[in-house]
Write a structure and sequence with these properties.
Layout (H helix, E strand, L loop, with lengths): L3 H13 L3 E3 L2 E2 L5 E5 L8 E6 L8 E8 L2 E10 L4 H13 L5 E5 L5 E7 L6 E3 L3 E10 L3 E3 L6 E3 L3 E4 L9 E14 L2 E5 L3 E7 L4 E6 L2 E4 L4 E2 L9 E16 L3 E2 L1
Antiparallel strand pairs: 1-2, 1-7, 3-6, 4-5, 6-10, 7-8, 8-10, 8-11, 9-10, 11-21, 12-20, 13-20, 14-15, 14-16, 14-20, 15-19, 16-17, 17-18
Length: 254
């Protein structure tokens, strides 16, 4: 059973929103609280550096992309059970699944990252009741707005607003029958065949249709100079057999 002091600390942290969420669970579920949030790091740009003999300085060839960043949270936790039992639950939560998952925290509110727990994690046992540890994630360099992953339906031409510095690679689904044309900013996508729906994923450079949970490749049914990208204010319109459009804009910053 929690002491009066511990209960008050838990109430205050819950009220203030202390902690972070990862892979669908929040630190408060494990009576874990953040003592120190990560510093705000600028990711390293991916580039190739060439040193030319007899020439001052280096040549840098940018790949127009960034490396992952490391985010470390300094945490402590307590629980009604002995500390090892809570520690096992925390480890299962963080290390129980591989790959990238959504990461949000109370410090950088309204932002979301794609993060992977990389470990190792050394959990200090204090009086067999309290634990302290550093939780480290490897994060994709993009920092998204929370609304960037909302799927929004539009029944008529519209405009979206994202950063004018970093182009967003949206997920766009068009609906209708027959041929049609989708215009996103200066990019025109000719859709030769539309049978109910077609999705354009600019991040994976792929066109497909979902049918009963199965992804059917539709790359041969479109013609475009490139997949659509969003930058600043971008107007989106359509003609032909397209009736309406869904968009997940995926706007981001660093």
């Amino acid at each position: 059973m929690l002491t009066t002091f511990e209960s008050e600390i838990e109430r205050l942290n819950r009220t203030r929103g202390n902690g972070f969420s990862f892979n669908g669970k929040h630190t408060s579920e494990f009576h874990m609280y953040v003592e120190k949030y990560p510093s705000q790091m600028t990711p390293k740009r991916k580039m190739t550096t060439v040193s030319v003999p007899g020439r001052n300085g280096d040549l840098h060839f940018s790949e127009d992309a960034f490396e992952n960043t490391i985010q470390t949270y300094v945490c402590y936790f307590h629980g009604c059970e002995p500390m090892p039992a809570v520690a096992h639950a925390v480890k299962n939560w963080l290390a129980g699944s591989s790959g990238y998952h959504e990461l949000t925290d109370a410090y950088d509110r309204n932002k979301i990252r794609r993060a992977m727990f990389i470990g190792p994690m050394d959990i200090e046992n204090v009086l067999n009741r309290y634990g302290r540890c550093n939780v480290t994630f490897s994060c994709m360099p993009q920092v998204y707005d929370l609304d960037s992953f909302q799927n929004v339906t539009h029944n008529e031409p519209f405009e979206v607003v994202v950063s004018d510095v970093y182009p967003a690679l949206p997920l766009i689904t068009v609906y209708g029958t027959g041929a049609g044309t989708l215009t996103v900013g200066n990019t025109t996508v000719q859709i030769k065949e539309l049978d109910d729906q077609l999705t354009l994923d600019s991040e994976t450079q792929n066109a497909y249709r979902l049918l009963n949970g199965t992804m059917i490749n539709k790359n041969r049914t479109i013609s475009a100079p490139e997949f659509p990208a969003l930058r600043g204010r971008t107007k989106i319109s359509w003609t032909g057999g397209i009736t309406h459009v869904d968009i997940v804009k995926r706007g981001w910053c660093l």
